[in-house]
Amino acid sequence: MGAILLERDRNGIVWFTINRQEKRNAINYEVMDALQETIRMVEKSDEVKILVITGAGDQAFCSGGDLSEFHHLHAKEEAYHMLKKMGTILYSLLTVSKPTVALINGTAVGGGCELATACDFRYARKGAKVGFIQGKLGITTGWGGATMLFEKLPYTRALDILLRAEYMSVETMYEYGWVHSLLSGENITEECRKLLSPYLAQTVSVLRAYKRAAAEKWKNDEFRARFFSEVTRCSILWESEEHEEAVRAFLDKS
Fold first, then answer.
1. How confident is the model over 157-195, as pLDDT tens digits?
2. 75 pLDDT exceeds 80?
3. Of the candidates 101, 102, 157, 107, which has an alpha carbon nearest to the alpha carbon of residue 127?
4. pLDDT at position 254, please?
5. DSSP the chain
């Protein structure tokens, strides 16, 4: 089995599943490349209506970047290359001309929360935990997550989430407005389909037109500058001793 599973159903939904359960569905370069290609396909297709991103199993949606694969990145230039690659992918996900959904089947951590934030909707299994915990690792969000969060949530709520750098229940994140629907957990795929059924009743042209109208505010030089400045700030912190020690402790614990 590969690092991702890709399925397109007859209703026009593309299901992109990160399939790395042994790594709690952490993102590596293989996942990055597959996601990039999938977004391009969704953008071009006149048959795809909605992109749903989820994780395999029921334990983790995505645990962010795979530190066991990225631990060799020390200098800020090395980190910047990786961060910008995924940041560019998430910017394309944010602005793709079809509705997108993060189906949060389990824990979402760090970059996993950034991935979910790039999507238009976040549907989460009740009882799951999510956390923008980058601060605990001596870094900030580095894939555009903070910039997107400040766009999508009220200022003080977004800042609170980032400064806490801790796990929060999806129920709390629902109250904050980050999670849009709480799912019972019995069959979240079918629950997701039901939530999307009114959207699927529309034509691709209608969906594309509305999403383009929504994304227009992010397709400008000012927003892009803010988005990728975040990447640069994270790359500078990446080479700090605080981050090195935090990653070392994490890998030793793992």
1. 999 999 999 999 999 999 999 999 999 978 999 999 999
2. no
3. 107
4. 63
5. --SEEEEE-TTSEEEEEE--GGGTT-B-HHHHHHHHHHHHHHHH-SS--EEEEEESTTTEEE-SB-HHHHTT--SHHHHHHHHHHHHHHHHHHHH-SS-EEEEE-SEEETHHHHHHHHSSEEEEETT-EEE-GGGGGT----SSHHHHHHHHS-HHHHHHHHHH-S-EEHHHHHHHTS--EEE-SSSHHHHHHHHHHHHHTS-HHHHHHHHHHHHGGGSSHHHHHHHHHHHHHHHHHHTSHHHHHHHHHHHHH-
Length of the chain: 254
Range 69-80 burial, b when 16+ CB lie within 10 A, else e: ebeebeebeebb
Closest CA to 178 of 102, 231, 90: 102
pTM: 0.96
pLDDT band for position 1 (50/70/90)?
low
Q: What percent of the chain has pLDDT over 70?
A: 98
- Given a contact cutoff of 8 angstroms between Cβ atoms, the answer to whether 143 and 82 are in contact is no
